[in-house]
Please model this.
Amino acid sequence: MKAYTKQQLALRNGQDKPEIWVAFKGTIYDVSASRLWKNGKHYEHWAGQDLTNELKDAPHTEKVFQKFESIGFLID
Model:
């Protein structure tokens, strides 16, 4: 898998580039096909970010990421 910086991830926010990506525990997922991430927003969460610390407030577990293709990993 390819490595991406936080700046590269930030561009995949559904606004700057057509891809909609999020990161969780160092893995980047492509959520572009999800109707729940339309325009890069999912409830109060924004795409192009690391959502690791935000999952504790979500009504679902981390198993939700199994639905999406992992396309890379996040580096500093």
Q: What stands out?
A: The helical segments are 6-10. The mean pLDDT is 92. The first strand starts at residue 2 and ends at 5. The beta strands are 2-5, 21-24, 27-30, 41-42, 45-46, 69-75.
